Amino acid sequence: MAARLQQFRSKAVQVSNFVSKHGCAYYKELLEKNKQHIVQPPTIEKCQELSKQLFYTRLASIPGRCESFWKELDAMKHIGRNRKDLTVEDAGIAALFGLEMYAWFCVGEIIGRGFTFTGYYV
């Protein structure tokens, strides 16, 4: 265990040295590459204005999202009514999607608990 800790410590030092040497250059390169997205002048007032614009734009997009949701729900109802036309491939895709959603919820629950597992310990 102590050997692994020492190995982890040396890796952390290597990463820290790399970031301290190359972090500034990476930051400048990133800003230069994305300068078309930077609003000038970068003031607190401008940030607050953009924040409000984002909030109200998202709020205005809710009716369109609701409409899309109801269209998707109607499509699912249509598939449910016409189960006889359902192919094995479509059923497999739906099953894989359901399995993936279940897995994401389980992983999200584990992350939400701080990467701890609950249950009986042997």
From TrEMBL:
Lineage: superkingdom: Eukaryota
The UniProt record lists the keyword Membrane: yes
GO molecular function term, any single one: proton transmembrane transporter activity
A UniProt-annotated Pfam family: ATP-synt_G
Subcellular localization, as worded in the UniProt entry: Mitochondrion membrane
Keywords carried by this UniProt record: ATP synthesis, CF(0), Hydrogen ion transport, Ion transport, Membrane, Mitochondrion, Transport
Record-level GO cellular component terms: mitochondrial membrane; proton-transporting ATP synthase complex
Any one biological process term the GO annotation gives: proton motive force-driven ATP synthesis
Similarity field: Belongs to the ATPase g subunit family.
Protein name: Mitochondrial ATP synthase subunit G protein
